[in-house]
Amino acid sequence: MADKTSKQPENIPGKFYVDQNCVPCNDCIHEAPNLLKYNADESHVYFFKQPSTPDEIKAARNAISVCPVEAIGEDGE
Ligand code: SF4
């Protein structure tokens, strides 16, 4: 389960976030390329946009489901 107390600092504030466990493996970006991207040194990914439409929310939840290390959470603020 993702940890909202260890969010990557670049995440845009909101419910969805990537935490410090990100490998990064890139799988989530395939699911939600309009929401997630690599940070500057490609050491992890983060949400540059919070989902707002039903399709975007579905894409964000698909990203959660494919993450092999459970680094993506939906319980942020
Ligand atoms: S799927 Fe998980 S481990 Fe892979 S890049 Fe995304 S957040 Fe990081």
Topology:
Blueprint: E1 17-18, H1 27-31, E2 36-38, E3 45-47, H2 54-66, E4 72-73
Antiparallel strand pairs: 1-4, 2-3
The structure holds iron/sulfur cluster.
Would you mind describing this structure in some detail?
The protein has 77 residues and is α+β, with helices and mostly antiparallel strands. It has one domain (13-73): Alpha-Beta Plaits (2-Layer Sandwich). Helices cover 23% and strands 13% of the residues. The chain has 2 helices and 4 strands; from the N terminus they run βαββαβ. The strands form 2 sheets. The chain has a two-stranded antiparallel sheet with strand order 1-4. The chain has a two-stranded antiparallel sheet with strand order 2-3. It is globular and about 30 Å long. The site of iron/sulfur cluster (SF4) has 14 residues, from helix 1. Iron/sulfur cluster binds next to helix 1.
